[in-house]
Each structure stands twice: as structure tokens, then as C-alpha cells.
Model the fold of this input.
Amino acid sequence: MGAGIAIAVGAVVLVGWISRTYPLTQFFHQRSAMQPLTALCAVLAGTGILAAARRHTDRWHVRILCAIVLAIALQALVQQAAELDLGTDRWLFPAAIDSQPIPYAHPGRMAMPTAIAFLLIGAGLYLSQVAGRIAGLLLSATSSAVLLLAAIAFLSHLYAVAPFQGPFSFTQVALPTSLALAGLGTGVLALRPRRGWVGLLVGNSVGATAARLLLPLMTVIPILVAGLALRGSEAGLYPSDFRLALTTAITVVLLGALALWGSAQLDSLVSERRSAEILRQNEATLRAFFDTEGLFASIVERRGDEVHYIAANRAFSALFGRDDVAGLTQRDLDPSAPAQAMADRLRGIEANGVAQSMEMRHVAEAGTRWFQVTISPIGGSPIDAPRFATASFEITERKRAEAHQQVLLQELNHRVKNTLAVVQSLAAQTFRGNQADPVAKRTFEARLAAVAAANDLLTRQNWETISLRALVGNTVGPGCGADSARIHLEGPELALPGRMAVSLTLALHELCTNAVKYGALSNEVGEILVRWSVTSGDEPRLNIAWTECGGPPVVAPSDRGFGSRLIERALSAELRGPVRIEFRPTGLVCEIDAPLPQS
Done:
């Protein structure tokens, strides 16, 4: 743009010299005219700047234009310094130069400040073709000097300073010349915008933003103050010698106010930049979360009974065969799904204010897929359109594994039952005949049934854990032919590891059978109390106490039977803990102490 302004000014002035339309050479400011060689230099230098700005331009074109501009400016300086007349001043339009209305000591010659400015412009244009930091800094310095010369010349015309002669006769620099020099200086600076002080204006930092805001005001304010002070002096409001003091005071006050305003703006810019950075980081975090491998994420908004999708990641959109689901409703994506149910679920989450997880099924042409979905309310969203974040992970393989495991467990239960049936059949064959003891046969079948009942309980719990209360309740009472109303259970809810279930079942069955035959359940008034508890510590332990009362007086047997040996030895080995049986006169007491897994 600066180069274009210089070319336009030079072209208009040349047209004025060709047609002898002298107001065009002065820009209708009858103090001085832009000479033909000066206008030519403006056009050549502007063309060189435009050529240098093109990346694929041959550097020799730029250097040739530089050489021409430097030669014209240098010869003007030599003539001025040596007081020579080489005749070059009238190379262009000599007749028009001789007849111009403004008298000059050397008609057609550019002023000394103009020649110096073009030397600096030529040097800066040449430096723009040289790589390196030093070249960039020198370019910035030469162009800044040109802008200073142009500013002084322009202000001398603005304030109507009386013309004077000498090497620094700025008032001899014409108004169009000052405009062209300003454009050329700006154009050369723009060739290397990252070097020198210009880099502070074109950056993205807070300081650069503040500089772009303050620099125009700091430039315009002193000019306006000086102009107003000059006009006030000319109008007789105060003496001319008071003008400097007034101008200085007003400028200081205005620049001070500008500095304070600039500080406030700088604080605001820093705050805005920090907020923008935080927002950018949050967006980056959200985007990284959205792009997590295997995550199906979306943000939804409930509007009445309709659920609208505000945003979603690529995986979620692809799940429904879409590039982007933003702006669509749940009904658009899955017409078969009950939209009302989803809206009601979102209402419940909104009312509770806490996230909710669930398993959901998605039916597509490729088959059924299962997902673990977590829906979280987003705080601060509008009341009439609350928003929620959904995050889903596919659990199809897990569901298939669970279904397969269930099939295996059912098959295992079936095979165990078949095995127990075979064992029962073999026992029936073994015990057949007159020599078979019917009591022994019934005892064996009862023990086998207790094992089968424990197996059923474990199968229903996937052979993981089993409720101790359920195990005791199924084994003691109906499981051994006793009245359950006379059996009392006390203890907390406890999930017993599966490995302990079968042995404990057999032991409880033996205790219950013995109570029915000989103990507290052999009469009409006896009762049994089964109490259990868990002691905490480094190794939690399970304590079970079987206590009989109200039965016939108890006498310790001289010989231990199978049931006693099963309880004291086999159960103790299986549970890895002591098992004690005491035949007290008031009733049998059995105490079991076994370690429990930490889980």
C-alpha cells in the first residue's frame, strides 16, 4: 500500500509536469512543487518495493531500480554540496521547469532532505534483498529515518513554517514529496516486518496489541495539540511566546491520561488473553478427551421430550453411519428407540445432580452391540434446555463372555447333577439287598442332597460368592428334616467365598442330622442357635458358633463317628482354621474359626 501511494503521487505529479498543470505538482498547496526527478524516483522506488515483495522476482530487477534511484539522489547531493550545475536538473520537461510559478535557486533539483531520504530508501531496498539479522535491523533504521524526514516536512507544511534555505530546508520539500516519502518508508519497512520496532506491532503478544492501540493516538495527539495552539496564537488568544509552554503542558497531560488509559487497556488485554488461553486449553482438553481411542462421546441437550445432539466425536457419529450428528435428535438417529424414556432418564439425572451409569444396547445392521454409558449433567446450562455429557465404552465382548460363561456354568451344573445322580445310582446298587442298612442308605443320600443343594446355590451365584445366611437357611432345617421354626440364625449379611461353601454345607448338615437324631431337635422343645460374626484385623476371620439347648442331657461319646471326624478334620483342613466340638450337658456346641479373604 505504501509503495502504491508513492507510485500514485509520482504519476500524478508527472502528469502535471507534462500538461503544465502546476497545481498537480503542488497538490494545490502553493508553497513548493515536487520536481520531475523527484517524482520519477518515487515511481521507480515504489516499483522496486512491489517487485521486492514478490517472492519469485529476479533480484537483479530490484537492484537495477535501486541503482537508478541512488544515482539520481547522489548526483543531487553532489551538486548541492559542491555548488555545481551538471545540467541534470532539466533532463525532464525543461520548458515546464523554467516556467513554473515558484522561483527556485536551482529549478528542477530535489531538496537536500529529499535526496538524503531517497539515498536511505535505496539502501533499505537493497538491504531487503540481503538475508541476515543485521541487514534487517539496518533496513528498519534507514526506513525509520525516512519516515522522520517525511514527518518533519509534512508538519512544516501543516504548521505553515516560513521557508528557509540551507542543507535542512525542510520547507522546500513539497507536500506531495512528503506523502510519497512516507509511503516509501512504510513500504520498505513492510518488506521485513519481523525486524526492528515494526516486529513489536505485527506480533500476537499482548504488548503488540497494546502498541497497535496506543501508537496512532500518541502520534495524532501532539500534532492536534500543536495545530490548535498555533491557531489560538494566530487568533490572538495568547501571545506567540506562550504557545510552546501551553503546547507542552497540554501534551504532557494528554499523554499522561493516554498512558493511564493504556495501562487499563493492557490489563484488560492480559485478562482477555489469559481467558482465551484458558479457553483454548479447555477446548484442547475436551478435544483430546473426545478423540480418546474406543470412546463414544457426545453432548446432548434436552428440550422438552426431545433430546438434541450438540456435539459428538467421530466414533459416536460413525456408530450411526453419520459424518456428524450435531443438530440431530435421538429420533433422527434411531427412530425405533423410545425418545420419551431417554428424556425421562435425563430429567432424573438433572434432578439428582449426579452422573448415572447404565448398560445400553445398540441394534444395527451389523448386529447388536452393548455399551457402558455414563451420563453426567453439565452445570450452568440453561434451565429450559439442560445439557449432559455422555461417555460410552463398548462392552460387547464382555457381554458375550458373560453369556458364554453362563452357558458353561449351566452346563457344569448339569454335569455335576448328572454325576451326583450316577453316584446316587451306584449307592443304591451297593446298598441293595437284605444286608444293606436302610439308615446308612438314607444318611448317604441326605449328604449327597446337601452337596447338590450347595452346588445349586453356587451355580446361581456364578461360583463366585454365596450368602452365608442363605446357605445356613437351606442346609439347616428342611434340608435335614427339621422344623426351621426351632432354629435361630444371628449374624450380618456376608458373602462367603465359593471354595468354603461345600465343606461348610456338609458340616452343617451333619450337625443338623445329629441334632434331629440325638440332640436338641430330637424332642419337642429343644432349639438351636447358629451365630456368626467377622473379626477385623490384618487377617479378617469368620467365627461360627452352633449351640444346642433344651434337648436331652448330652454325654460325650466314647468313639467319634464319621460326622464328627468330617467336621473336626476335613472341615478344619478345608477352611484352614480350628474347629472344636464340645459335648456339654446342656447341649452340643461347635465353634468354627476360619480366615476370610480380604475382598
Remarks:
- The chain is about 55% helix and 15% strand.
- The radius of gyration is 52 Å.
- The longest helix spans residues 243-290.
- The chain has a mean pLDDT of 80.
